[in-house]
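Summary for the funding panel

The consortium committed to producing paired sequence-structure records for every protein in the target list. Below we show the first two records in order, beginning with the earlier of the two.
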Amino acid sequence: MQVAERVREPAQVNAVALKAYARVVDAWGLGLKEAAGLADMSESTWKRAKKPSFAGELTKDQLLRLSAVIGIYKSLELYFSESLARSWFTRPNAGPLFGGSRPVDTVIDGGLPQILAVRTYLDALRGGV
């Protein structure tokens, strides 16, 4: 039995990732500076990237960041009530990865490794680890 493989064009992948990321940013109430920093973009690039007509390329790092952030969002939505899920990322947190800081600040400062660490942390919470 053969499995059909569907190859997506990079522009299509970028458009879907950016649309989903923009929805997450809106749900969390992130400002321009936070949204751009989290995606590792300048503020002007993020302003352009969130428009449906954006034709720029995303780096592999940026795509991985967007994917991991969307995964964080999904974990929060599954684990917490809607109000807590929507505010968790921007509230001070005494958890082991955050030291009293807001998760959004720690991931912007820590970059991709910290984004992935938060994603793993939340997946472990959901899994009962």
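The next record, for a separate protein in the list, is shown here:
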Amino acid sequence: MSEGHTAIDWDSARASNLANWEDRVPLHEEAYGIDALDDPDHLTSVVRTDLAALAPFLPDGSVSGLNVCHLQCHIGTDTLSLARAGARVTGVDFSPSALASATRLAARLGLDATWVEADVLDARAAVGGSFDLVYTSIGTITWLPDLDRWAAQVAGLLRAGGTFYIRDGHPILYALDENAEGLQLRYPYFGTGEALMWDDESTYAGDGRVAHPRTYEWAHPLSEIINSLIRAGLQILWVDEGKTLPWKFSPRMVEVPDGFAWPEAERDLVPCTYTIVARKTGELPTP
């Protein structure tokens, strides 16, 4: 349930969000279908979708042999799918429990990965080296108040000529009332600078409950997301909007291949995701 806008400071919001995400780790270890990764040919549905979208923008259409930095990687299932696709991966997340889970999973699967505990807003200072691909997907930047600072981290992590990829929930989706009988706006599409405060014991995956239910998120319209990347010096190569999600945003959504969608009669009325591919065309100052 949303409790409305609040002018909470970032440190307090971060601490509350971190406690919530720490609680999610054991729940998501059960709900994410990790056992499927024991099949050496298996990739998560998120990564399968993203690799297909990325292929036209990558050398030989593949991440094989590329240095990839996965921002906000959570428990590493998608990161390790990128590794399985041939990438050299570094996963970044602010949750120590999530990274401990990712480390255990990498060892279990016999996959190499580097894990860095850091806020995504401080990623450039925390992560060594530069990357051919910076990757983020999905359910990520609503947790951040400052997209200019976020985009500066992305640009700083990329080598010249490197590619940035993001697929995330569409801002108009987040403006909808997930429990309404139809498609009905409830929350702000345009950001106000203040956070939306939520108290919700559930997570988007599984039936478990968290001990720390309060979280804070920020609305970012699509124009703000794109312009933050442009201001960071990145060249926008491609923007797409999709009709499916890898999680069930609303009880009214129906299951489709690799995700969920609105009932067919509503599917063409509102996007569920956006995808942006951008490129760093030259060296930029380190943020």
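Regarding this second record: The chain has eight helices and twelve strands. Helices lie at 10-31, 45-54, 77-84, 96-109, 123-126, 147-157, 171-174, 222-231.
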